[in-house]
């Protein structure tokens, strides 16, 4: 991401665990967090992607092999982070997997596997990090969902159900943890890394689903590249992680170019640009 950032100290003093940070959005989060002054634990199961990223980021980051579904991995990871960087005060639950199939073609195992990573994982992460955040006198937890959690579509029963659940987990956690100064929010992006989609392109995802001209967002996609949208997500997560958002908790934040705002009905007022 070759962008100049002006918030160099936004996350100074923060120790952040970012799950799913070995690649994609999580890797961009790790880079941006370090640029903003945080120390970062790159937590993922992809050692061969996470270790080189940690090397790239230097002393302010290290790679931690962590399967978000494993209670043992969480129990080991938080004390390790504390001993290396000090008290953990930010958690970004970003790791997720995708599965695309109709309900008719979805097995109970498919459904459980996705819920396990996308919903049980963040719950275990919140539970594991809470004692450290209480000791720190507060903290910020940011969950990464998807617009599918507002606006599900055919084929998304596993993924959208898990992300819808993540919105509820966010609210319950915000209610229970507010008394300790811990804020919990969820972002709902409309884009992420193509690597998540690759296994399904040409099979579950046919060409028309990738047709950018059919994108229903309020901002034309040709003016906003995928990479620029990911930067929006990263900046927004860093704002929620920082001390600049003390009144933000228990809330959903779509980052979707207006895709879930509503829709244009041609033939009603406001459907054409003003020309004079
Ligand atoms: N890709 C998209 O189009 C899109 C759209 C909206 C929201 N999102 C969300 O953005 C977030 C980041 O996804 P991405 O787009 O970068 O996809 P990605 O597949 O590139 O990244 C997901 C990361 O999670 C890791 N992961 C998977 N299972 C794990 C486990 N059990 N334990 C630890 N790590 C695990 C993967 O190894 C990978 O590094 C996800 O929460 C995703 O749901 C993605």
Structural class: alpha/beta
CATH superfamily: NAD(P)-binding Rossmann-like Domain
CATH 2nd-level architecture: 3-Layer(aba) Sandwich
Q: Bin the helical content.
A: 25-40%
Structural overview:
With 276 residues, this protein is α/β, with parallel strands linked by helices. The protein has a single domain (15-255), classed as NAD(P)-binding Rossmann-like Domain (Rossmann fold), CATH 3.40.50. It is built from seven helices and seven strands; from the N terminus they run βαβαβαβαβαβααβ. The protein has a seven-stranded parallel beta sheet with strand order 3-2-1-4-5-6-7, sandwiched between helices. Strand 4, helix 4 (108-136) and strand 5 form a beta-alpha-beta unit. The longest helix has 29 residues, at 108-136. The N and C termini lie far apart (40 Å). Bound molecules: nicotinamide-adenine-dinucleotide (NAD). The site of nicotinamide-adenine-dinucleotide has 28 residues, from helix 1 and helix 6.
Entry keywords:
276 residues; alpha/beta; Rossmann fold; 7-stranded parallel β-sheet; 7 helices; globular; binds nicotinamide-adenine-dinucleotide
List the helices and strands and how they pair.
Layout: E1 15-19, H1 24-35, E2 39-44, H2 47-57, E3 61-65, H3 71-85, E4 90-93, H4 108-136, E5 139-144, H5 157-177, E6 182-189, H6 194-197, H7 226-241, E7 252-255
Parallel strand pairs: 1-2, 1-4, 2-3, 4-5, 5-6, 6-7
Helix pairs in contact: 1-7, 3-4, 4-5
Bound molecules: nicotinamide-adenine-dinucleotide.
Nicotinamide-adenine-dinucleotide is lined by residues 19-20, 22-26, 44-46, 66-69, 94-97, 117, 144, 146, 189, 191-193, 195-197.
